[in-house]
Structures are given as C-alpha cells and as structure tokens.
Amino acid sequence: MAATEISVLSEQFTKIKELELMPEKGLKEEEKDGVCREKDHRSPSELEAERTSGAFQDSVLEEEVELVLAPSEESEKHILTLQTVHFTSEAVELQDMSLLSIQQQEGVQVVVQQPGPGLLWLEEGPRQSLQQYAAIGIQQELYSLQEIEVLQFHALEENVMVASEDSKLAVSLAETAGLIKVEEGQEKNQLLAERTKEQLFFVETMSGDERSDEIVLTVSNSNVEEQEDQPTAGQADAEKARSTKNQRKTKGAKQTFHCDVCMFTSSRMSSFNRHMKTHTNEKPHLCHLCLKTFRTVTLLRNHVNTHTGTRPYKCNDCNMAFVTSGELVRHTRYKHTHEKPFKCSMCKYASVEASKLKRHVRSHTGERPFQCCQCSYASRDTYKLKRHMRTHSGEKPYECHICHTRFTQSGTMKIHILQKHGENVPKYQCPHCATIIARKSDLRVHMRNLHAYSAAELKCRYCPAVFHERYALIQHQKTHKNEKRFKCKHCSYACKQERHMTAHIRTHTGEKPFTCLSCNKCFRQKQLLNAHFRKYHDANFVPTVYKCSKCGKGFSRWINLHRHSEKCGSGEAKSAASGKGRRTRKRKQTILKEATKGQKEAANGDEAAAEEASTTKGEQFPGEMFPVACRETTARVKEEVDEGVTCEMLLNMMDNSAGCTGRMMLVSAWLLGRPQETYNQGGRRRGSRRVTW
DNA sequence: AGCTCTGCCGCCCTCTGCTGGGGGTAG
DNA sequence: ACTACCCCCAGCAGAGGGCGGCAGAGCT
C-alpha cells in the first residue's frame, strides 16, 4: 500500500480515505504477508518539536469528540486516520502495557511495523459485526514520537475490537450514517477519560472483502483542546466522511472531487489527493541543513537553494538571480516591464502584487488591523506596528557612523548624515522670497506659515493696510520702521515712538505727573524724576565725566566731548563710537545719533525733544569740576535747566539775585558750555553778587 | 512527480510629510 | 531682559517598492 506518513499535528478531524481512491499499487507495495509497512519521514527533532508545541500535550477530554467514519461497505478498504484523544493523567490500567503490546484481539491481527516501546494497546471490547472500531491507548509516558513512526496496521479479520468494556469506553456506532461517535458524556467514556492519560486512537474498521477485510489505519494525533472558531474534530470528520461519500456516489461518471473542508474541487483524483494532504501537516521532506520539513520535494529543493545560494532563475535584463521562477517574474514586473495587474478601483494605484493592493486599499478604508498592545495606535501593516513599537522600547537601531548618534528610523539617520556630515548639501529656495532652507519639509512649513493665503485679513499694526499673506504683511510693516508716525498736533514735532510723543505733549500742557517722594518736586518724565532722585537723594551717586584725553577737559555729556574733540582733534567720540563690543558700539552710535538729533531739535526750538535726547542718555555733571560739597547746588541748577530754565535765564537770575556764589557761576558757565578757564580767567562774569536759591 | 504559476505573508527599505523642541536673531 | 519669529533638527507615521520565502494548484 501507499506509504502513509503519520501526521501527529493537531488536525482536528479524522481523515478517512477510501481505498478505491488510493493508488492500488501503493497498497500492494506495502503489503507483505498482510502487513502494512509504514513510513514516516519526519525527523526526531521535528516530532519532538511538534510534541513540545502542544500537539501531544496532555489534556482532558472535555468536548464531545465525534469520530466520524465512513460508512461500511463491504469489499472496500479504507485508510483511517486515527485521532488521538488526550485524557487525564490517571493512567492505571495501561501502565503495565508492555512494549509493543498490541493485543491481538479475537480475529484481529494488528501489526505495527516499527513498534518501539509501549506503543499500542488494544483492549478487548464488544464485538461489532462488520463495522468495527478500535480504541488504542498509548500510554503517554512511554510514548516516544520518534519511535512511533508507523501506526498503520491491518485488521485482517472481519472484526476489530475496540476498547474493552473494562475500559469503559463507550463508543456509539451510528450505523446508518456510518458514523461512530464517541460520546464523552457517557459515563463509561468519562471513566476512562478520567482514569487514563492516554492518547486514544479511534479506529474504524470497514468491512473488507470476504477473504481479507483489510483495514489500513493511519494515526494522527489530535489535541482535543480545539481552537475556537474551528470545527470540532468530529465535525471535520463528518465533513470528510460526507465528502468521501459524495465522491463515491459520483463513481462511474466523470468525477469531480469536492473537498468539504474547504471549497476546493478538482476533476483529478491526484489533485484532490494532493489537496487533501494540505489539510494535514504532513511534511515528510526534511532539510538536512536546518531540519525544517516541507510538503513537497520542490519546496525542499527551493529551500535548500536558499542555504546554498543557488539561484537558477537569472534575469535577462539585469544580473539579478532568484531561487524560484515566480520571484524572477515578479522582479521582471517590478524592474523591467512595470506590469501592474492589480489595480485599485478607487484610485489610480496599481501594483505588481495583490498583497500590495490589499495593503493599499486599507488607506482607503481606514482599516488598521494591527493594534499596539501598549497604546491606542494601530497600524495598517505589520511593519509599521513593529516600527512603532520602537517608540515604546526606546530602541534606536540606526547609528551614524561619523558621530555615532542613534536613530529610530533609517531615514532619519540618512537625513542627519546628509545635513550634518554631507558636502554640497542641497538647499531649497523658497519660490516666493529669498529664503533658503535646508530641508524640503521645512520649506513647506515656511511656505505654509509665511506664504499661505489667509482668508482672514491680516492688519498692519501701523496703518490701515490689510493683507492675506503673512510674508507681505511683515514686509509692509518693515516700511514703517524708520517712520516718524507720531506727529504733534500743537507743533511740528514728530517721533517714532508713542512714549516720546506723550512726553512731548506735556511740554504743551505743563503736566508733570512724576513726583519726587522725598521733596515733592514734580517732573514731566520718569527719567527726570529718577535723575533727580539720584542726584539729590542718593548719597552713593557719582556723576560720570567724559574727559578729553588730549587737553584733560571734562564734560558732562558725551556729545559735548564729541564736539570738543572735533575742535581739539583728540578723536574721543570717534574712538568711543568704534568700540569693539557690538553692544557698546551700538550704544555709542545711538548716543551720537540721539545727541545729533537733540542738537538739531534744539536748533529747531524743540527744547523738549532736545532735553529728552540729552537727559535720557545718562548725561552727568563733571564731578571733578564740582566738589561733593557743591554737588547739590550744581544738581539744582541742572534740574532747573532740565525743567526748561535756560542757562541764559539762570544767569539772569543770578545776575539779579543776591548770594550767587562763584560755584553757581561755575555751574552756569558749565551749563552754557563755556570753558572753566573762561570763568577763571574772566573772574566773575556778572559780578560777585550772592545768589540765594 | 516535477515544473510552473500564482498567491500570500513577512521583512526591509525609501520617500514623504507633519510635529514640536532647540536655538539664534531681531525687535 | 523679554518676546516673537523662524530655521534646524530629530522623532514619528503614512504610503509604497522590492524581494525572500513558502504554499497551493494547474499542467505535463
């Protein structure tokens, strides 16, 4: 008979094949003295792997297990795939089972080709007349998968005994349907199940011909712990049985073989048989390099080629080569013909492979079948989920070979290397302005932020102009930069800052909102109040002096020193203005500008602006010209000047007042910009009358 | 049984685009 | 000193291309 490989994987059904569907030659090949030789090509490691993977796990027979067998028809032979059923661990009765203790029952001859230790056990049971069944318990402790490669046996006699009554295994025989149902619910059955931790192979015997009713049994293991949504073993068996039955009914006409496990049909028996093997896990072809097994020689050969690097299918258009012809075809489509047979019905997308189309369609449907177990993220394909998981694990598999910075994605690293370590890095010019940006994505952000159309009106801060593009608005507002937008309604004064205009307006209104808390004196500007407080009420105040390096003259204002230096040739202001520090240089430039402005504004009669320009830039009295003792006096004079009392007015006051001291004259002279020596030389310019303040 | 084709799954890659923090600059 | 602005940059996800490998089925 044909070699029937044992499958011990968890097929959930018992396979039944009619002998008439099996190659007769095969049967005869295996027959020798009525003995069915059996082959199993699986390796010990594979079997062990299957065993450890749970195929042979102990389990309690919980579900109702239907053993579906083909109807009994005389003179037909059957191959039965036996299903193992796991029972609980109290194997008592079978412990003494000797190796190869297949008990030959009355009229039953059971032969096991490669017996191994402790393999089969066949107990006496109630006889069935024609349709027989047997229960074979294999004590799990003794069961060595490597050694039970063959479990075919022939029942040469009419009757095959099943599990004995003693074993309390109850098997109901559905005679009319040709089904045998193992009813778990029956008490006897349960007793055995509870008592033994066995794998039971339920065997049906079909009546053979009168001389040699031969039953060919193959054994398959089945874990009774069935997966949800999967048909029970019994259901599957039933399907198979019906399938077989149906096939038999078509005998004589041109047959179509229907697989009732799946939708497969075939007019060829060989195809059908081959297909039915797909419902088992038979993989008899072992790779000697990695011990992996395959169903067919072709698969094994292709697999071995992956080990050896043999790539027989070479591309004619490039130097690529592939293990299989299919890979070559696919490669050709991708690289050379660009044929894309799979077209999306919702867009123009087309792909070489159906799986790519399937993946693509998810972008339309929004389907995200791959859920992250640690967050709410779900991806549309497995790779994205795997990549996403790095965000949880912190894994950064990509390292820059130059600076050894690590990255989570290869693309990120590539950009990093290009931007940080690359030469002639491409830049991206904004098409709407002169901006050049290193990254295309950032250019897009730039375009979106600055050049995107804004439905809302973007109003200029300084004028009524409105824009719909942010960049245009910014450019426009820059035009207001040096504009003296604030114009005095009482005079021609104009300035850039509103606070300057506010201060200026007070020169017209006479308002002095800033009051000194120490002396109740009022000021138009806060800066003036601060200066006042420092000079009059701060004992630590030391006025700064701008001293000419050439002639030694001191000046309270930097601008005065500047003016002096132009005449004296010392270049003080120039050197000061060209200081190295950016901030210092800028400040000096500002001072110079402000001073010049103050000069001009003063020339234009705008005293307030001139005073503001001078007093707010830190002008101080020349301290060494005025001893500390007279500091209060000089400050008071200065204050009067700040408050709009001109020096000429002050001199007139002194001239007309008694008690005006020489120091006061000195202050007046200084305020008028007259050199000290003029005073010294000229003595009392306006007399020595004492001025009382 | 072997060859071939097709389908499917998985893996890895690239390209792309968005996001948000960092840091420099100018006001 | 503070703030707004904007480019730089890394992180991360979406989409798709290409290939490796295996399984199933038609055909010879």
TrEMBL record:
Q: Which InterPro entries match?
A: Znf_C2H2_sf, Znf_C2H2_type
Q: Name one GO molecular function term.
A: DNA-binding transcription activator activity, RNA polymerase II-specific
Residues covered by region (Disordered) = 24-55, 220-252, 569-588, 594-618
Keyword Glycoprotein set for record? no
Q: Which SMART domains match?
A: ZnF_C2H2 (SM00355)
Bias (Low complexity): 601-613
Keywords of the record: Activator, DNA-binding, Metal-binding, Nucleus, Repeat, Repressor, Transcription, Transcription regulation, Zinc, Zinc-finger
Q: What Pfam families does this protein map onto?
A: zf-C2H2
Keyword Metal-binding in the entry? The reply is: yes
Tell me where in or outside the cell this protein is found.
Nucleus
Which regions are flagged for Basic residues bias?
Answer: 243-252
Cellular component, GO, one term = nuclear body
User: Residue spans with biased composition (Basic and acidic residues)?
Assistant: 24-51
Coiled-coil regions listed: none
Biological process GO terms, please? establishment of protein localization to chromatin; genomic imprinting; transcription initiation-coupled chromatin remodeling
Outline the extent of the C2H2-type domain: 257-284, 285-312, 313-341, 342-369, 370-397, 398-426, 428-456, 458-485, 486-513, 514-537, 546-574
Primary location: nucleus
Family named by the database record: Belongs to the CTCF zinc-finger protein family.
Protein's UniProt name: CCCTC-binding factor
